[in-house]
Amino acid sequence: MPLKIEDYAMIGDCRTAALVGRDGSIDWLCAPRFDSGACFAAILGSPEHGRWRLAPDEKKVEIKKVERRYRAGSMVLETDFTTSAGAVRIVDAMAMDSDTPTVARVVEGLRGEVPVRSELVIRFDYGWIVPWVTHHERGIAAIAGPDKLRLRSWVENKGEGYATVSDFTVREGQKIPFTLAWHPSTVKAPAGLDAEGVIHDADDHWRTWSKLCSGDPNCQDEAVLRSLLTLKALTYGPTGGIVAAPTMSIPEKIGGVRNWDYRFCWLRDATFTLLSLINAGYLDEAREWRHWLLRAVAGRPENLQIMYGIAGERRLTEFELDWLPGYENSKPVRVGNAASGQFQLDVYGEIADALYQAHRHGLSDLDDAWHVGQVILNFLAHAWHEPDEGIWEVRGERRHFTHSKVMAWVAFDRGVKAIEQFGYPSVDLEKWKNARDEVHREVCAKGFDSKLNSFVQSYGSPHLDASLLMIPLVGFLPADDPRMVGTVAAIEKRLMRDRFVQRYDSDAAVDGLPEGEGAFLPCTFWLADNLALQGRRDEAGEVYQRLLDIRNDVGLLAEEYDPAARRQLGNFPQAFSHVCLVNTARNLANGDRGPSQQRHKEVGPLSQA
User: Fold this and answer.
1) Where in the chain is CATH 1.50.10.10?
2) pLDDT in tens, 540-590
3) What architecture is the 212-608 domain classified under in CATH?
4) How much helix, strand and coil, in percent to the nearest 5, is found in the chain?
């Protein structure tokens, strides 16, 4: 059985990522890209589906304590094992700027003499293919079809069943290095990298990147900097796309069916992601994200998708892997994501807002951005009247979701502001102004229930939805508007479970799926933002601290949280959770200059304050 989700840490090279457990086992790794087939898939099954465990040999020694940490300002991971025979440290990192994805692992002797065992189980194509293994001097090579892995080590390796194992003893002061590199099976194996050199260079790379944030006082906050590092590690360097998570099919409910592939880039996160990077001073990353966005959405606006592949791919066909039992028997295990074909109005608002914010914050090399924006808005001028699947990608019938209409308003509002503030030429100004006003009137008339004193999930619905917390965050209404005060109160009363916010009132008729999931962490961050905007700053701070307290020991958050079982749920680590952490921290620290104000007020970036 795999570990709890929070017992994993992530290492990465800005092309892919590996999950390393507290037990020293790498249970997830896709190569060469985030969305490639996994060669280690034990997190979705058992060790037989692929893993690499490097840890003290529990048959020979008792493990008494495990402590781990990231090096400060870095994605280099250190795991200390204290045993009955002494102590060792496992240092893990991925090579940066290498031609091929390479995992480097070094065992360091801290005290005594500790027996250590390396057990490498390679299974290509998500645990399906057992490769052909050949032994070489100082390691092995494993090949199957297009994939090849090359293990290099200074200790003897031997076959044991369908695994490669090494047994050795590490003494105080001794270091035993390993590297595992992927390369196409059609080309010669690359020259071996020095594991200690890989770790040193990776540490230097990440620390140098972290220092670029030193001008922002918020980056002195460990939680903020760790979240920014996580976002950078989830960025696919060649294109600038940011994956929602490096994993797939980690369940939103243990034993349930809400198991989705998150190794893609969602548009719903676009603007807050952009602002989190801009405000921290990472303009290059923000610019690359914006460029990815423009490339991905290019084409006919009616064909716009809610998510794309890391290079902008559109075909994200969903299918199931029946040979994997799933994380803690949560089936089915899905690859791809059928929600990519849904119609969601909110993405049009996100695109318009992201392009507007990019220009307002100094990323003015727009090229065809304004032309793209005009085409989108002219399509939306009639499309906003249509029902859609909504932000949560429900698999029930389309509805007139309130949040979707609000985001349509955002699109028109940013288009109008772009003309009025930046002087863009357009013959459509009055049309967009009229559409903006019409959407606003309709949402206030049909999306608000006076009996509940709250906005509701969809027109005529009795259900609440945490996406309604976005209404003041995008500037549709002030946070202290009586209707928003009532909405926040209703959400606190009906959607709060053990002090965390659920996404919506669960109804199989709405989402087309069985009931049951954890609290969605971004929604709880949005509650903190609303409380702060309403002047309830102490309460907002308490909510924020509650969210910080559920991070794992290395500062990472999944998508959801089960307060009753006190464990994280969903794909991990989740980019949107960390984006929201960064932005809520700034909202609390910077008041009327935080991201929730930047999305609609005339304020500049914090980096220029």
Assistant:
1) 212-608
2) 999 999 999 999 999 999 999 999 999 999 999 999 999 999 999 999 987
3) Alpha/alpha barrel (1.50)
4) 40, 25, 40
